[in-house]
């Protein structure tokens, strides 16, 4: 028997480039610099493509929102993060007031035009003013870039869908890390990334390349 797999198509998933916001997820030092606590080496390669999209978004007058995950020095806001991420729980990463939570210096962030959003969990929507910020500007679509594909980027895409924003997930402007064996085998960064993109395309929104998105924004 042939298994029929349902997948979203461009026709089924609305995306309005003229009413979109570019979300740059966690392109910060604690994820990108060499030897960082949560180093995502593939994330550094995204910077030119993300900067290109930032320029295109600004050129169209679209909001650009760069996020950072930050926790108080006393750990009062950690919650379950304390147990799931020992580096963060012990104060070795994502600590308020440290260089690690600052945007990587090569990201083309302009404080005069762009938004810098502090979040406490994976999703850029959870416990933040992001939804209100987007609604006030008439935004109904979000573009997801940054790190990591299967965690903070995917969580943001999922929460966007739950709030009825159309999602455009940029396949070559997102990156992740490999996963060690937790009982079901280990997975390389490429395998995690490919699976996450497939899952997102089936259940959360459109997945496309920087070049494809650039064409939509230019048009």
Automatic annotation (TrEMBL):
CDD domains: cysteine_hydrolases
Keyword Nucleus: no
Pfam families on file: Isochorismatase
Record keywords, A-Z: Hydrolase
GO molecular function annotations of the record: hydrolase activity
Domain Isochorismatase-like: 20-212
Coiled-coil segments: none
Record protein name field: Cysteine hydrolase
Species per Swiss-Prot/TrEMBL record: Amycolatopsis acididurans
């Amino acid at each position: 028997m042939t298994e029929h797999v349902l997948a979203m198509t461009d026709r089924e998933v609305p995306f309005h480039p003229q009413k979109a916001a570019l979300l740059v997820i966690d392109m910060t030092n604690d994820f990108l610099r060499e030897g960082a606590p949560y180093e995502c080496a593939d994330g550094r390669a995204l910077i030119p493509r993300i900067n290109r999209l930032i320029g295109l978004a600004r050129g169209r007058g679209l909001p650009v929102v760069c996020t950072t995950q930050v926790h108080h020095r006393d750990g009062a806001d950690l919650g379950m993060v304390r147990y799931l991420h020992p580096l963060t729980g012990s104060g070795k990463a994502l600590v308020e007031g440290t260089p690690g939570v600052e945007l990587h210096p090569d990201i083309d962030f302009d404080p005069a035009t762009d938004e810098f959003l502090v979040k406490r969990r994976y999703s850029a929507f959870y416990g933040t003013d992001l939804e209100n910020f987007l609604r006030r500007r008439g935004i109904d679509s979000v573009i997801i870039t940054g790190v990591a594909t299967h965690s903070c980027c995917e969580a943001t895409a999922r929460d966007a869908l739950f709030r009825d924003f159309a999602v455009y997930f940029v396949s070559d402007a997102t990156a992740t890390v490999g996963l060690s064996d937790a009982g079901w085998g280990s997975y390389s960064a490429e395998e995690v990334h490919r699976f996450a993109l497939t899952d997102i395309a089936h259940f959360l929104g459109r997945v496309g390349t920087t070049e494809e998105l650039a064409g939509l924004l230019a048009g």
